[in-house]
Amino acid sequence: MTLVRSIRRLPEHHSDIVSFAKRRSPVSHPAVMFRKSAVLAVGGYPSVFPEDYGLWSVMIVRGYEFANIQEVLLLMRTGEDFITRRGINFLKGELKLLAFQRKIGFLTNSDYVMNYIIRCAVRLPPDSVKKALYKLAR
Predict the structure, then answer these.
(1) What's the CA gap between 105 and 127, in Å, rounded?
(2) pLDDT in tens, 50-108
(3) C-alpha torsion sign, points 36, 27, 88, 22
């Protein structure tokens, strides 16, 4: 029997996904399906980490439509290292991603500043605080 501790709920429709994407990755990468031709048309995954979120941003800017299925398609196990890995090095990648998103016109300057502050507030505290913040965000 599988113990489900949380379910990541994501917006279903494109307009809601675009709004959500201004703050967090709008799809769950391990369960995503896309047309290879569409990804190749935008140049593939960008050289920025996290690259999947960068790709979704480019595709949205280029006018591709997104949708999320509301049915749970993936059960994913995470351990204690999930929180530990989301520290200063993860933050450095996210800040580069934010700069990339601003450069391609996905984020406005105010979106960029707000995300910068939020990312630092979530990534820099001790792991116990990060755990609580992740529970709130789900």
Answers:
(1) 33
(2) 999 999 999 999 999 999 999 998 888 777 677 677 788 999 999 999 999 999 999 99
(3) positive
The burial class, CB within 10 Å (0-12 / 13-18 / 19+), for 1 is exposed
Please state, in angstroms and rounded to a whole number, the distance separating the CA atoms of residues 31 and 119: 24
d(CA 15, CA 68): 11
- Per-residue burial over 12-31, b if 16 or more Cβ lie within 10 Å, else e, is eeeeebbebbbeebbbeeee
Distance of CA 16 to the CA centre of its chain: 14
Whether the bond into 50 is cis, omega within 30 of 0: yes
